[in-house]
Amino acid sequence: xxxxxxxxxxxxxxxxxxxxxxxxxxxxxxxxxxxxxxxxxxxxxxxxxxxxxxxxxxxxxxxxxxxxxxxxxxxxxxxxxxxxxxxxxxxxxxxxxxxxxxxxxxxxxxxxxxxxxxxxxxxxxxxxxxxxxxxxxxxxxxxxxxxxxxxxxxxxxxxxxxxxxxxxxxxxxxxxxxxxxxxxxxxxxxxxxxxxxxxxxxxxxxxxxxxxxxxxxxxxxxxxxxxxxxxxxxxxxxxxxxxxxxxxxxxxxxxxxxxxxxxxxxxxxxxxxxxxxxxxxxxxxxxxxxxxxxxxxxxxxxxxxxxxxxxxxxxxxxxxxxxxxxxxxxxxxxxxxxxxxxxxxxxxxxxxxxxxxxxxxxxxxxxxxxxxxxxxxxxxxxxxxxx
Length: 387
Hints:
Rossmann fold; 2 domains; 14 strands; globular
């Protein structure tokens, strides 16, 4: 089988996590050839892989639509691929081969997100997201099969489009994630050493609006300065600086909140941490939180559970599907409820132990190997159907 993967849009978050984990597994298959279209920056992460050919293209967001709808089909034909895996939410309208669409961006279906943009005065982004949402909706129509990373989001897509959508969970490989062959970055190690002995609350995400940082920041002053005699610190894998924020999101409001709420000493803005060193950060934390108000899978939740962290998560169907009994849930815009949930877990050893046990069991249900097998089985069926 010859598989073509369009990952031109993989630049941050789940798109990067997906290609980083899936591509090495595909490369091990002797019965498979893979051609991958991706940006030069992502290409640098991969050594030469057996049976994998890379097609590097630097495409700005403005030109991505034109490239995918006009030029990508030519690349697919020249490669002689038999199946297209569109990994970035948008499908090729007239794909020359059967097409599997991976749809994993819930902002297009989230009324909370559109309301948030209006309240922030982000009218240009509001219009742009509606346009992209129209294309994402049409993409479900254009693709032969649409795949979602969770059943909760698959059901949301079915209601939104009226089309069938198949759920195939994204995976997790603890041996890859927790590889100690590379040392933590010196700057990260130094910062963690400086707060040794603190009660560390972790949130892994680059800054964007739908991860709902502001609710998290408002919850911090509601916590005591110390938990179990240890000063409370919030660890973030981003910085509230415009030049270090992907996309068009503006972090100035969050930066002002840190100052106005007196959180400068309590919030540690670490900046981006390389994926293959993230496990060091999880190991140092005492508790994981996510206040996101929309989500499709949330890889950090699986990473946190695998790292033995109790989880406090906003009450989304996706979060409940992924974590089940391994998390405590709160209404997504309630800072007060979030603070109470954090204290519920942080001050009860029995609650934390029960959640950790549930997490270890739950993590076993997620496998990148199983995900790849399901995608290839689906690909084979589509190829046979087209013949």
